[in-house]
Amino acid sequence: MAEKVTIADVARVAGVSRQTVSNALNTPEVVRPETRQRVLEVVEELGYRVNLAARQMRTGRSGLIAIRVDPVSDGINGSVFDRFLHGLTEAAAEAGHRLLLYTAADDHKEIAAFEDLLGAHEPDAFVLTSTHHKDLRTTWLLDRQLPFVTFGRPWSELPDVRHPWVDVDGAAGTEAATEHLLAAGHRRIAFIGWPPGSGVGDDRRLGWARALAGAGLDPTGLSRETPDGAAEGEAVARDLLAGDPDITALVCASDSLALGALQVARSPNPAWHSEAYRRIAVIGFDDTPVAKAIGLTSVHQPLTEAAARCMSLLSRALEGSPPSHLLLPPFLVVRQSA
Amino acid sequence: MAEKVTIADVARVAGVSRQTVSNALNTPEVVRPETRQRVLEVVEELGYRVNLAARQMRTGRSGLIAIRVDPVSDGINGSVFDRFLHGLTEAAAEAGHRLLLYTAADDHKEIAAFEDLLGAHEPDAFVLTSTHHKDLRTTWLLDRQLPFVTFGRPWSELPDVRHPWVDVDGAAGTEAATEHLLAAGHRRIAFIGWPPGSGVGDDRRLGWARALAGAGLDPTGLSRETPDGAAEGEAVARDLLAGDPDITALVCASDSLALGALQVARSPNPAWHSEAYRRIAVIGFDDTPVAKAIGLTSVHQPLTEAAARCMSLLSRALEGSPPSHLLLPPFLVVRQSA
DNA sequence: GTGAAAGCGCTAACAG
DNA sequence: CTGTTAGCGCTTTCAC
Question: Which residue of B has its CA nearest to A5?
Answer without folding.
Answer: B119
